[in-house]
Design a protein that fits this description.
Largest sheet: 2 strands, antiparallel
Strand content: 5-15%
Number of helices: 5
Distance between the termini: 50 Å
Radius of gyration: 18 Å
Amino acid sequence: MIYKSCSRCGKLHPKGYICRAGTIYSGRSERKLRSTNKWRLKAEDIKERSNYLCAVCKEAGIYTYDDLEVHHITKIKDNEDLLLEDSNLICLCQLHHKEADAGLIDPEKLRLLAKLRDM
């Protein structure tokens, strides 16, 4: 296999690989989906069913009620069909939401916590 140095990121990629480094993701379709009343109602439902607690903090024995957000375990850009799917949504504080988005929290752990919420 032939590798070439990428002019965008400086890494070596297989010949023909299209590097996305430096491209700007607008997220327009995600914002549009998140602005719907259906999403707002679903997010409020998930928070209510989570007793307005961060699932990751709760697992650690800490009760965090402030700055709660609803996180998509599988990102909307990867699968728009999961926008309102209960098993793909979890209530997190801002800190854990940022960690989950950065991939620092295992998605399978989040799926398990979402499943436990609904038991």
